[in-house]
Amino acid sequence: MLMFTFAKRTCDVRGCSDKSSPRHRFPNPHKNPERYQKWLDLVDNPVLKSKDPDLVFRSHRICHIHFKLEDRSTNWFLQKTAVPSLYLPQPKYLRNVCDKK
User: Fold this and answer.
1) 32 half-sphere exposure, CB direction, 13 A CA radius
2) Residue 25 β-bridge partners
3) Residue ranges of the THAP-type domain (predicted)?
4) How far is residue 44 from each of residues 17, 47, 70, 101, measured CA to CA in Å?
């Protein structure tokens, strides 16, 4: 199960302003590179993409509100297969379409 910390750090999902929910660490980029990359793509934070994956794993977090109930366990931890899926930024292709209107 993935570790969490209470909200002492900002959430790294682009546009998230939550300041109170628990935070979850990114998946280990060496043990699960596909899932790490999926999280990185979903949070849509360009700053993280330019950072060393080990630094992102050690120092960056995503808040609890971005995970479905079935991704969570009873003690605030996440299932090993969890990926953020709620309250995420719009994909770039949709932002570009909406910006042109």
Assistant:
1) 16
2) 61
3) 3-87
4) 15, 9, 23, 22
- The end-to-end CA distance of the chain, in Å, is 43
**What gap in Å lies between CA 53 and CA 63, rounded to an integer?**
19
- 35 close to 27: Cβ distance less than 8 angstroms: yes
Angle at 35 between CA 31 and CA 36, to 5 degrees: 75
Evaluate whether 64 touches 24 at the Cβ level (below 8 Å): yes
Strands (E), 6-84: 23-25, 61-63
Query: Are 36 and 55 in contact, with CB atoms under 8 Å apart?
Result: no
**Residue 68: closest CA among 91, 95, 88:** 88
Inform me whether the pLDDT recorded for 61 exceeds 70: yes
Write out pLDDT tens, residues 19-32: 888 899 999 999 99
Using DSSP's 3-state secondary structure scheme, residue 87 falls into coil
